[in-house]
Structures are given as structure tokens and as C-alpha cells.
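Continuing the series of single-chain predictions for the mutant panel. This is the parent chain; the variants come on the following pages.
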Amino acid sequence: MSNPIDLYRLEFEKRRYNNNIDTSFTQFGVTPQIDTPTLPTVDEFFQYYTELFYLIPKEGDINSHQYLIEQSSAYVDQQQQLEEITALQEEISELRKQLLETRTDALNTIADVLDATNLNLPPLPEIPNLEIPSSFAVNIDTTTTNPQEEKTKREKRQERRAARRQRREERRNN
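Parent structure:
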């Protein structure tokens, strides 16, 4: 009267066991929830900044307006912008000089042609020799902490000036 019973044993290899069976404890406790502070939005930040503006010290290594300016300037790479502004101002000065020279040459040519035609015209007034400043007076603090970096900026500026002079001479020769 005994009935035979078939027994089957299900086994996993060690590496397959960890993939198929969850061995973490999930039933015995509640995981603690970490309260993370919410950061203010950009609009809220500037609202706080406006409210605290006069309470923030002007100068200081940290927590000051000076610190904010230095950090923001480093982020937007203000030094490179100042170099570009200076280079563009120098180029504007050079172009103004060229324009004045061109106008003066044109007026002198007109005066020479009128003199050569022997028309009885009243003499033209003398054209004054105007001095054009070689650079603009801009009060921007461009101090750097690395003298080697300053040297390379100076060299770059000299290279740009030399290239501009060369282009000007090529234009004159053509």
C-alpha cells in the first residue's frame, strides 16, 4: 500500500543563486528616510539676495560682495573678455588714425588740383594736424595673480599689433 513519491531537488549554481534569490532584509525594519534640504530656485535666490544685499559686507575673503564678484568673474572668464575689449579698442584707434590720414590725403589732393587749375579761388584754410590717442582710457582692474600669465598676454598683444602693422603696410603697397 505504499505509493511511491518522486522528490525533486532544485539547485542553483553559486553565481546564479545571487541573481535569482533576493538576500537583502526587507521584512524586519523600515529604512530611514533622509531629509534633504531643498535648494532655492534661481528666482528665490535672487529674491533672498535682494533682501540681504545691504547686510552683506562689501569686502572680505568669503561671504562678501567682493567674493561674489571674484567667483562670478572667474566663471564667466572676465579676464579673456577684458583682453578682447582692449584689443578691439586698440584696433578702433588704429582705424581712426587711418581714416584721418585718408581724409587728410584726400583734402590735400583736392587742394593740389585746385591750385594746378589756376582758378582764382580763395585759399583753403590750413588743415590742422590732429593728435589721436593711441588707446582709450578705460578704468578696468586687470590685475592677475600669475606674472607668467601677464607676460604671455603682453606677448600676444604685441603679436596682434605687429600683425595689424603688417596688414596696413600691405594695403599701402597695393
